[in-house]
Amino acid sequence: MIDLHTHSATSDGTDTPGELINKALANGLDVVALTDHDTIAGWDEAVRYLRPNLDLVLGSEISCQTEDGISVHMLGLLFDPDYAPLQEVMAQTRNNRHGRMAKIIRRLNDNGYQIEMADVLAQLSEGATLGRPHLADALIAKGLVKNREEAFAELLHNNSKFYVSHYSPTPEEVIRLIKGAGGVAVIAHPLASLRGRTIEPAVIASLVGAGLDGIEVHHRDQNLEERELLSNLAQDFDLVVTGSSDYHGTGKLNVLAESTTAPHQWEALESRARERRVISL
């Protein structure tokens, strides 16, 4: 089984990278990708916990935004971690998350929710990328909501009056950076309408022109009709079709390997990288 999209406590998951690797082994995965948001900080720990019979794909889920303000997430896999232009963009995105969080907190405060930045930062693991799930955890700790699902459904979703966008490069720019670093680029859950506004299918052509390698088709947040549309687009543009869990530990309902990538699709995707960077023992 091949799961190409998971998160650890280095961003907004709840498992350490080591715990994630142990769970991947326990669940019988053959290949797992660690793709924390806008960071590679969990890579070294994941490698230390790796054991035979599991291949590790190192990557990141990179925040992007279209010219008309639609949030897009791009999975960068198998890229050179020393490629400075990509690391600089991810660092800028992480830094801007703090300013964004302060604005969201102010809006919550103005509406009677007593929460402070210190409450949110207390939910972060050392070196983790700050995100709305950490705010959700702070709201839970303060007794203001019951769980992350309630926090996002009522307060933190993309269409909420509390939502604040933040600096993100365009998806085309991120794809070019991933390719410049020798990696492969897969757009994550592009038609997951429950998350907020989604890109128009016609935008895929622009992303292909920038070097897009694949589309995450099989994902719990995309219905059967959306998956069929994405599968057809992948065929039209000769893109790899992936399936992934988007696992976050106990932070979301997603279960490891609930959606997976077919072996022949993974082989096609890996072949597009500049060199083989899969970690195996």
Describe what this molecule looks like in 3D.
With 281 residues, this protein is of the alpha/beta class. The mean pLDDT is 94. Strand 3 (55-65) and strand 4 form a beta hairpin. The protein is globular, with a radius of gyration of 18 Å. The protein has a seven-stranded mixed sheet. Helix 1 packs across helix 2, helix 5 crosses helix 6 (148-156) and helix 7 runs parallel beside helix 8. It has helices at 17-26, 43-49, 84-110, 117-121, 132-141, 148-156, 171-180, 203-210, 224-237, 263-270, and strands at 2-6, 31-34, 55-65, 71-77, 184-188, 214-218, 240-243. Helices cover 38% and strands 15% of the residues. The chain is built from ten helices and seven strands. The chain folds into two domains: 2-91 and 169-270, Metal-dependent hydrolases (TIM Barrel, Alpha-Beta Barrel); 97-156, DNA polymerase, domain 1 (Orthogonal Bundle), CATH 1.10.150.650.
Rg calculated over all Cα atoms: 18 Å
β-strand number: 7
Question: Mean of the pLDDT scores?
Answer: 94
Structural class: alpha/beta
CATH architecture of the largest domain: Alpha-Beta Barrel
Strands across the major sheet, in which order?
1-2-3-4-5-6-7
The rounded distance between the terminal residues' Cα atoms is 17 Å
Which helices and strands appear, and what pairs or packs with what?
Elements: E1 2-6, H1 17-26, E2 31-34, H2 43-49, E3 55-65, E4 71-77, H3 84-110, H4 117-121, H5 132-141, H6 148-156, H7 171-180, E5 184-188, H8 203-210, E6 214-218, H9 224-237, E7 240-243, H10 263-270
Parallel strand pairs: 1-2, 2-3, 5-6, 6-7
Antiparallel strand pairs: 3-4, 4-5
Helix pairs in contact: 1-2, 5-6, 7-8
